[in-house]
Write a structure and sequence with these properties.
The complex is a heterodimer. Chain A is built from nine helices and twelve strands. Chain A is rod-shaped, with a radius of gyration of 51 Å. In chain A, the strands form three sheets. Chain A has a five-stranded antiparallel sheet with strand order 2-1-5-4-3. Chain A has a five-stranded mixed sheet with strand order 7-9-10-12-11, with helices on one face. Chain A is α+β, with helices and mostly antiparallel strands. By secondary structure, chain B is α/β, with parallel strands linked by helices. Chain B folds into two domains: 2-120, 3-Layer(aba) Sandwich (Rossmann fold), CATH 3.40.50.2300; 126-220, Winged helix-like DNA-binding domain superfamily/Winged helix DNA-binding domain (Arc Repressor Mutant, subunit A, Orthogonal Bundle). In chain B, strand 6 and strand 7 (132-135) form a beta hairpin. In chain B, helix 6 (152-163) packs across helix 7. Chain B is elongated and about 55 Å long. Classes of the chains: A alpha+beta, B alpha/beta.
Chain lengths: 462, 226
């Protein structure tokens, strides 16, 4: 999941929980407040009833007081004597039975109301909530229990409305929260995106570039700084590596030069006996191999350090024809049948020297590891924007378990062959590196004791 | 013929000096750029063998300095960095040729002779053996003033042997010279003989008296006059 989604979810979730808790507490407070008002209203009515009971002493008197004050418009009033026998009930509370408690208390009941009660709305139908309050008073040593109740019908409706408003409001604010937090998450992540973009821009060739630091010294500033420090170290090690290659080339090549010089000189001396000369020639051969290995290895490291080559358009057909011409005495002498399918003027953009080196290497292999009277088939074809070079040769081939290793440095199918065939053990590594620098691909197929085919795909344009 | 060799490797200087002295050249040496400049401003030379990688003042700086001072002595750069950029830079600064280390002596001698010949007062671009003449500029070969048609490879082999008269040249060295660095001399050296056969036939070298075969080694052009 994207960090942006995560952050928006977290913000939205937190916001939602907060507003939910807030609404709940407000709701609770509101309901409690309302009940308190109702309860104190009930108490007030109770007081009036008790007062009038004290003044008039008779039930009749109470009835009059209630009628006069119009209390029974809103309240259901019942009075019981100490024997729990109802001595009075207001007009509208007839036929409605509410459970009676004999202790002073407040309570809520739901009870059914007979049909056609004019004082209750029809919509309420069967059951209506009532808030009731029981009060006690003694008059002339006699105990009276007064039950006052009021319908919560309207209040319930009011509360339902509030709940509805809260649900709608919460849903709306949740949606809004998600939108806002998504936007905020984007804002938060923007500098990270910028840092990422700038980091991608820094590669081997532009290692001297750094991420510009922001003005505020925040975490992102620190991140940029850490990345810049990392690039500093990276650049340093790259420079060291390059310097190592430069000095290694100097250090290795000079002694080899000197050795070769002695050897050349000794060989050209006429007076040495022939067996000694033969030994010198053998040693020179080893020296030349070593020299080639050093040159190739350095060439390879130089290419590995390079991001891109100098690219020019060139005629591949001409390059291949020239190489084939150079190899022709070798091919003829080995009695190899050469079959070339190459159309005129196949052109590509690339580094001609490197492509030439690549072709020489694969052709050299095809000749070296071939049978006498064998075959070489070179097919160069163009498909769309790619050039396919397929080089087939008969020969001992490569065991299938070794196929993926042949591009490794110093890998040889048969170690003992190295002296017989010469070479550096780096030829195919060079080939792969050149193909890679041209953004192409190389594959090898082989049938042991039969044939080998190397297939190279190169884009026409770089 | 006076040659100045500039290289920071004393052993290398010593060997090279011995070798060139043996070929009747007068040789002076310098171990660093400063010494080289001192000697170059004090004495006239016919050729400079200049190593690029030198401590303090490097070969390219030396080259720049002397060309700036109008010293036009031919310069053969010796470079250990086979990097093309260095060669191009050197040639741009006025070097006449380059040799990438390691190189064979035969190759170096061929380059030295070519440079000296080009710069000599006579200005003769001819290499001769018996009645055969090779013109290094027009790349023509004549025998008794009769033109001989050689392929590029045959010409290269012949020229290389002529530049290294009286030295036995191995097939490896020839292969390196003729086909260049990119080809494996082990693959190519076996086929020097094919070209040699054709070359001998064309210059009517019956029995191999002009180009001698040195068994187990390679080939040699002997010229007692030199």
């Amino acid at each position: 999941m994207k960090i942006r989604y995560k952050i928006s979810l977290w913000i939205a979730g937190a916001g939602l929980i907060t507003s939910l808790l807030f609404s709940l507490s407000i709701f609770y407070e509101m309901v409690e407040q309302t009940y308190n008002t109702v309860d104190s209203g009930l108490k007030r009515v109770g007081k009036i009833v008790i007062n009038s009971l004290g003044k008039s002493q008779t039930i009749k008197g109470i009835e009059e007081t209630i009628m006069l004050t119009g209390l029974d418009d809103l309240y259901w009033i019942k009075i019981y004597n100490h024997n729990k026998i109802m001595v009075y009930q207001s007009e509208r509370s007839e036929n409605i039975s509410l459970p009676l408690h004999y202790q002073e208390r407040k309570y809520t009941v739901r009870t059914s109301i007979p049909q056609n009660n004019p004082h209750v709305r029809e919509s309420a139908l069967n059951k209506v909530s009532f808030r009731a309050r029981v009060l006690k008073t003694t008059l002339d040593g006699k105990l009276y229990i007064i039950q006052i109740a009021t319908s919560l019908e309207e209040l319930d409706e009011e509360i339902m409305e509030v709940v509805l408003i809260l649900i709608v409001g919460l849903t709306a604010s949740a949606l809004l929260l998600i939108l806002i937090s998504y936007f905020i998450a984007g804002k938060i992540l923007e500098p990270i995106k910028t840092i990422n973009r700038l980091t991608i821009d820094i590669n081997e060739r532009t290692l001297n570039k750094r991420i510009p630091l922001g003005k505020s010294h925040d975490e992102l500033y620190q991140l940029s700084q850490s990345l810049n420090h990392m690039f500093d170290r990276l650049q340093l090690s790259f420079i060291r590596q390059k310097q190592f290659i430069a000095s290694a080339s100097h250090e290795l090549k000079t002694p080899i030069s000197m050795l070769r010089m002695f050897m050349d000189n000794a060989i050209s001396q006429q007076e040495h006996p022939e067996p000694f000369k033969q030994q010198l020639i053998d040693q020179e051969a080893i020296l030349i191999r070593m020299e080639r290995m050093v040159k190739t290895l350095l060439n390879l490291s130089a290419m590995e350090l390079k991001e891109a080559l100098e690219i020019k358009n060139f005629n591949l057909t001409k390059v291949i024809r020239t190489i084939l011409h150079d190899f022709s005495p070798v091919i003829t002498a080995n009695n190899i049948q050469l079959d070339v399918r190459l159309s005129d003027n196949v052109c590509m953009a690339g580094n001609q020297d490197k492509i030439r080196l690549m072709l020489i290497n694969i052709l050299d292999n095809a000749i070296k590891y071939n049978y006498k009277n064998g075959t070489i088939k070179l097919v160069v074809s163009e498909t769309g924007d790619t050039i396919n070079i397929s080089l087939y040769n008969t020969g001992p081939g490569i065991p299938s378990q070794d196929l993926d290793k042949i591009f490794e440095q110093f890998y040889r199918v048969e170690k003992s062959r190295s002296l017989q065939y010469g070479g550096t053990g780096l030829g195919l590594t060079i080939v792969r590196q050149i193909v890679k620098l041209h953004k192409g691909s190389v594959k090898v197929e082989s049938e042991p004791e039969s044939w080998t085919r190397i297939m190279i795909e190169l884009p026409k344009k770089q | 013929m006076k040659i100045l060799i500039v290289d920071d490797e004393p052993q290398f200087l010593k060997q090279l000096k011995q070798l060139l002295t043996g070929h009747k050249y007068s040789v002076d040496t310098a171990i660093n750029g400063e010494e080289a400049l001192d000697k170059l401003f004090a004495n006239p030379y016919d050729l400079i063998l200049l190593d690029i990688m030198l401590p303090k003042i490097d070969g390219l700086a030396v080259l720049k300095e002397i060309r700036h001072a109008d010293i036009n002595t031919p310069v053969l750069m010796l470079t250990a960095k086979g990097e093309i950029e260095d060669r191009v830079k050197g040639l741009d600064l006025g070097a006449d040729d380059y040799l990438a280390k390691p190189f064979s002596i035969a190759e170096m001698m061929a380059r030295i002779r070519a440079l000296l010949r080009r710069d000599s007062d006579h200005g003769i671009p001819f290499l001769k053996v018996r009645d055969i003449t090779l013109n290094t500029i027009t790349r023509e070969v004549t025998k008794n003033n009769e033109p001989i048609n050689l392929t590029a490879k045959e010409f290269a082999i012949f020229e290389f042997l002529l530049y290294n008269k009286n030295r036995a040249i191995t097939r490896f060295s020839m292969a390196e010279h003729v086909w260049g660095d990119d080809f494996d001399p082990f693959t190519m050296s076996n086929y020097i003989d094919v070209h040699m056969k054709n070359l001998r036939r064309k210059i009517s070298d019956i029995g191999g008296t002009v180009i001698q075969t040195i068994r187990g080694v390679g080939y040699l052009i002997k010229d007692d006059k030199q």
